[in-house]
Amino acid sequence: MVTWTLGVDDPALDLAQGGGKAVNLGRMTRSGLPVPEGFVLTTAAYRRAVSGGGLQERIEAALAEGELGTQSNPSDPHDVGDPARAEAAARSIRAAFRATPVPEEVAEAVRAAYERLGCGPVAVRSSATAEDLPELSFAGQQDTYLGIVGEQALLAAVRDCWSSLWTARAIVYRRRNLVPDDAAALAVVVQRLVPADVSGVLFTANPLTGHRGEMVIDATFGLGEALVSGQVEPDHYVADAATGRVTSRTLGAKSVATLADATGAVTTENRQAATAFALTDEQVATLVALGRRVQAEYAAPQDIEWAFHHGSVHLLQTRDITSLYPVPQGASPESVWLSFGAVQGMLTPITPLGRDGIRTIISGGAAIFGRTVDPSTNPYLGEAGERLWVRLDRALRNPVGRRGLPVFLGFVDPSAGAIATALLDEPGLAPSPRRAVLPTLGHVARLARLAIPRTVAALARPTRARDRFDAAIVGLVAQARAREAAAATEPDPVRRLAARGRALRVGLSGAFPAVLPGAAPLVVPSVVMLRVISELTDPTPEGHGVSPVVMEVTRGIPRNPTTEMDLALWEVAEAISADPESVAAFRTLIPAELAARQLSGRLPAPAQAALGRFLAAYGMRGVGEIDLGRPRWRDDPADLMHTLQSYLDLPAAAAPPAVFRRGEQAAQAAVGRLVTRAAGMPRGHLRARVVRFLASRVRALAGGREQPKFAVVQLMGVAREGLLASGADLVELGALDQPQDVFFLRLGEITDLAESDLAGLRGIVAE
Asked: pTM here?
């Protein structure tokens, strides 16, 4: 038996029968939310009207006449042809609906349901089967009719709703999203009209900033149609999502109001600019509480339409906010997350294996404090938008972390440090009780026991400290190569890849425990000493900070891996300049062609040899190198070729060696000025000696700042070579399309790989 109508709260109501809007209303009603009473005219009624009154033939004829079945660009499946023809087809189809009576059996069901509702003023809204879905949003493309009174007016509104499935906008949207016309159908929602005193929209997360701890409300007097259609400038409120407290409000002109009287008559008035806000603080708090209930029901931030009438709030509609940047799974509204990639200057997505590699490195650092942290469940790391995020709010609530974290972040990335400092004033980030400091002090004490003796030794004999640190990194990389070599001896290609995955996990988890105890005595004292020099020579009112002249001391720092790499690349350029054939190649070929020839060994011999030496030392580096899945220079040296081409045209004064020498000279001059300035201050002789000593130690130690990352990149380079070799094995086995697809697997999928898993790898990579 065909069901023409269902109550909004009927459990049988589903997407196929009621469309997205009706299903949402039914879900909210059954959850106890304040939804106006109503019923749904199902899609079966629409299909009966289309098939029984000759409408289907008229629809097909109008589409055919507009040539909407063809495309102007057949190679593009999303091409929609001429929009003007869609407009013409829409006018013809909608006229056909208005001229066709509602089938009697459907009309009788509508009359009966309307009578059960009380026959008063109603709102009639269309509800499409493809509306308000996560992957498609047809919101606003179908029609709404307010203040409908009487059976004849109701049936006319039903026909108009049905025909709104065939507006030009809806037709074009379906074609662009490859939704067949015959797959779409329309239900109609009929609800008691709420003659709103105030209405508007509520976003349970700030749609502009993405802040999940804020709710945003736009409100106007009367019905919300003027607001939704953009005819009115509403009041704008921002409220705390937890408490409902208003944190900011902006008065809107509200010069247009759509009003409904007791009979259902709807009028639109032009008014003078408003001088009063539409909502009280209590009403804002009521809406925020409602928003929390709705968001909890849907487990996602919501865009909610609401109305107040005689002090009671009514929920008219809700849908997911689809424009928000995603947050890590399970993130609470009061949590704060820092983009790991942004700090690294890497704004693009990170490959799955790359994310697991970074997780393993960071989580492995817990061993320094005597702890073990599972990288896959580390509470301080999250993933969203194919990127990695570091959780900060727990540290910002900790009394020790509040003091140290903004300073540390400012050293790593000045903008991140400034944001962290500003967050200290957030009510939701108030410091935790003093007793929370005790575990933190324990970790700090453990680190201090490791670092202080090494720091004293580094200050006393800086060159020896750097030598030991560099030797430790060489040993760390050698161990990684030994593990890779052992994994490569596994005869079975599937087990060989699993062994390489395990070797990667061991190498990366041990990176920080091996590197940081040696790096901290070099890097941290350098930062502290710069501040002390600044205080001794030019005290600031705040008692902290580094003056510009002191920063000059850090120019031309020796034993900096990046500087050494630039100088090595300049040696390649000099080798090319000394060979006419190499010069001719680099002046006539594009970087991509030069890269292809280098990879195949077809560059002129001097250039090939010089680049070979450079890539042997630095070929594991590249753009976005902290992502294990990103190509390295040894994979694609096109960027290097572009740089080398520019080096050939550099004047001698702009060459890296000359720039480095000028930096050294500027640093020496800065030290001299600072020593002279200190000598002219109270206790000048002692000040001058201290400044000269500290400056010498900064220059001897600060070059180690970039060494930890260079060590990690070397470890990744070793692992990447082996993984690509295993990727090639899987291509031969028919499990992957290309070797680099291995980086779209997760580390656990690699370490636990079995032959039975091979058939599913392509699907994992594609996803």
From this structure: 0.79
